[in-house]
Amino acid sequence: MKTRVYVLLFCITLLSVRTVSFGQDKPLEKPNAEVKEKAKETKEDIYEEFEEFIKVIKELQDKYVDEINVNTILTNAYRGMLSGLDPYSQYFSSEELEDLKIETEGEFEGLGIEVIIREGLLTVITPIIDSPAFKAGILVGDRIIKIDGEFTENMSVRDAIKKLRGKLGTTITLTVVHEGDTVPFDITMERATIHVKSIRGARIVDDDYKIGYLAVTNFQENTTKDMDVAVQDLLKKGMKSLVLDLRFNPGGLLNIAVDMADKFLERGLIVSTKGRDTTQNYTYRARKQGTYPKFPLVVLVNNGSASASEIVAGAIKDHKRGLLLGIKTFGKGSVQSLIPVWDGKTALKLTTARYYTPSGVCIHEKGIEPHIKVPLSFAETKALHEHLSMIDRDTKTNDVREGESKEKEAVPQGSSVRKEKSSYIDVQLERAIDILKGIEVYAKGSNTP
Q1: Which CATH number characterizes residue 210's domain?
Q2: Which stretches of the chain drop beneath a pLDDT of 70?
Q3: pLDDT number for residue 11
Q4: Is 140:367 a contact under the CB 8 Å cutoff?
Q5: Catalytically active residues, by annotation
Q6: How many folded domains does the chain comprise?
Q7: ∠ at Cα 153 (147, 154), nearest 5°?
Q8: Which terms under GO biological process does the entry name (predicted)?
């Protein structure tokens, strides 16, 4: 009797997943006898597999050394099903689903690392700017060999994330190997509250040529609105051109990436998605309403620019709206859908489509090549980490300085609170500024009679 109950429960679970995931079953218009026969064979094969699966569950329940709950067995089975597909598909328990919702709201506790399994190794997509991991020197492409002394081999992404998280203020030691290196070393850091501020460092970086700068570090619900505020403020300050920094941006919400690209494009295709199920086929197009003025634009990218970042970069590149500068992007061109199961208490994060740039290219595991390559050495990359962590503080300091300059006669000589400017030079940003200066000079020259 028990076995029958388990078979029934399992079949109901699978049916509910299928219904919610795909929404509808489209019959063939004119099914022929051969197709019907194949469908029959497929069903019989599936039922045989189900029977085998139930046998395994029964054996586990009856003979495993410790008593084991059927829900635990099934949860592990779901995790195994999805982990075998690709690095991004996952099963979320109710607790994990709640954590995911908190993350998308822009604040959570942990280290601030985006990770995947690549070639069997726990690999860093990118550390979140200004997070404990970023400040401690965790780099894009780092392989995490151990977490607090425990090897990560055969560890799932969700299990790794559980271990990386913990109580606020507690310490954790990661054993990592930098990309291109073979020597592992330990990095110890303290868990903190991660405030994911998606727009950072908006400012005029060249007063003479009125070149603006802003960094987008993530694609959250309010990212486009926040960028609008920043861009409008820069335009009020006389901005004539812009450097858009997408370095170390791991992505986020697809619709927000589309909205952002739309701000720079008046018309045309932004991105398209194609899946095995035609319900996943979409095209996203730009609209003229709300588009920014057509100022010169340079977009900074690197190997930490992934997913939604690549949608924006790819659209700008293909429409020749601006220049891409830096190094090749990460190459995550797949789309994950969150599919609720068990009345929304749990969910599948499933790869349901791949996205294509306006020119029809799928950049999955390929990345996007910039127009202008400006590679950084290992030391320069580490220095860039430290510099970007200070970006907002420097901006606030500059705002204070502007206020001081207006009241400088009220400040006694020698009592200025100004700090010496950082000696660090962001070579990629400097190159972008030089290019925008050149565009301005050329434009003036071509307009001269």
Answers
A1: 3.90.226.10
A2: 1-43, 102-107, 391-422, 446-449
A3: 35
A4: no
A5: 307, 318, 332
A6: 3
A7: 120
A8: proteolysis; signal transduction
